[in-house]
Amino acid sequence: MKKTLLLVEALLVLAGAGCGGPEDFASADSLETLDVAEAALTAPNCTQLTATSVKANASEAINPPGNASDDQLSTRWSNLGKGSWLDYDLGANKTVSGVSIAWHSGNLRKSNFVVSTSLDGLTYTPAYTGLSSGTTTVAETYGFTARTARRVRITVNGNSVNDWASISEARACGAPTTTVSGVVWRGDFESGDRSQWSKTQMVSSDRLAVVSSPAREGRYAIKATVRQGDDPIGASGNRNELVKMTGEKSGDEYFYRWSTMFAADFPSVKTWQLFTQWHHDGCCGSPPVEFYVNGETMYLRVGGTSGSVVWSAPLARAQWQDFIFHVKWSPNSSVGFIELYHQGKLVVAKRYMATMYSGTTNYLKVGLYRNSTISPVGVVYHDGWIQGRSLQDVLPATTVAASTP
What we know:
Layout: H1 2-19, H2 26-30, H3 34-40, E1 47-49, E2 53-56, E3 77-80, E4 84-103, E5 111-118, E6 125-131, E7 140-159, E8 164-174, E9 183-187, E10 199-201, E11 208-211, E12 221-226, E13 238-248, E14 253-262, E15 272-280, E16 289-294, E17 297-302, E18 308-314, E19 321-328, E20 337-342, E21 345-352, E22 362-370, E23 378-388, H4 391-394
């Protein structure tokens, strides 16, 4: 059946090339799994830079340039003709070291493209020339020597099937930051907004609201609300989540500290409700690390649906739950390990196990992601996120974690 569909698609492509008809690979999209769709929205090995606007030299009427920066894989920018381009304005001069592009129907054809940068929007300097792989619709990152730029332009010179240019999502990549201290990143919302995080997956801003009360520490926390039907990325389940492209790779070892509080009326249902997860940038399946609630119990599972539940505890509402998670990231079960502190006590002593999938990197998602069958409104609060290289890096100044279970 799949071979038949691909053959029909190939015939449609050839027909489109001959008559210059609209760009339509909808049947190819229907073959993708939900996990592929979500993975394609990530930018592997890319510290994403936020663009203030995006424009194009021309567009198919139903596929404007803004579709290539809306965090929706189901939309795209398209234009017929070699030399079609997208141009991203970063709002100010930034250090740029690459672009990450999810190509529409990228698993069926190779796109020929050039990436150029500009300081003034008038003079552009080529930074990268090449072809997409032609094997995936998941975002591919193309790196080049870091340079200062205000604008990043992607010019498409046709593809291996026809002269259409079609991009589902694209982002400029900044140069990786160099960490001097043991603290790698803070996502504690003390900025008063969500700017410490890479992006959001939410249906509206009220679903991920920065609030002053309740707060576990400092002045602010995040309030994540999910209503039945909330589906901002067109994937499985309902969700509103913050995303941090932490980019954990095999061999990395970090400590993470955060606090979570479930609202007094948090739903009690016999199905999954994730509140913290480290997802993988490849295809497919459940995330390699997930903290979730089922019924009246909190769980930590490592290794996806076929992995192991390594910790559980009764669900407590209207009380802050403090976590410290120590991980050595590796797909090798004799190298990777985890430790978990809950409420200041070591509840999972060092346990060796595979903590990621082979050939992937991980990224962090926080908020609430749950089974779409759940009808009551769910509210979860998060605060105090910090990532460091040692236990002392992430501990509050007045806290000492217990060294024994």
